[in-house]
Amino acid sequence: MKGIKEQSSSMGIRITPTQARQWRMAALRAGHKTLSSWLRSLASQAARTGDTGRELATELAALRTELGRIGNNLNQLTRYSHQQGQMQDVEACLQEVRQAARSAHAALQKLTGTPRAGTSAHDHQ
């Protein structure tokens, strides 16, 4: 067949049934008909670019930390504004920062597959 390389090597890996289900669903969401096709695509891309995904995870973790700091500063401003009776758009801004922090946390959790240690529903309100 023209344009299709012959695949003559085989490779096997062991994964849990849960991983198999998750990976098959991820392959389908990515537009691949088979898990093998998706894994070959990911491995080929990583080999070409050297991208292991660690850089993105590191960047998201730093973003989450920075958003936490910004949120703390906004909490202080909110408290001060309430005390001074000068509440303006601080609450709306605080809500936007909280939403950005939740989004960064969700993206990082999706990348790593693990929840952030010490988090609770209260931490992200």
TrEMBL record:
Q: Where is this region: Disordered?
A: 105-125
Task: Provide the gene name from the record.
Answer: mobC
Name the record gives this protein: Plasmid mobilization relaxosome protein MobC
Q: What is the originating organism of this protein?
A: Bombella apis
Q: Which InterPro entries match?
A: NikA-like
Among the Pfam families in the record, one is: NikA-like
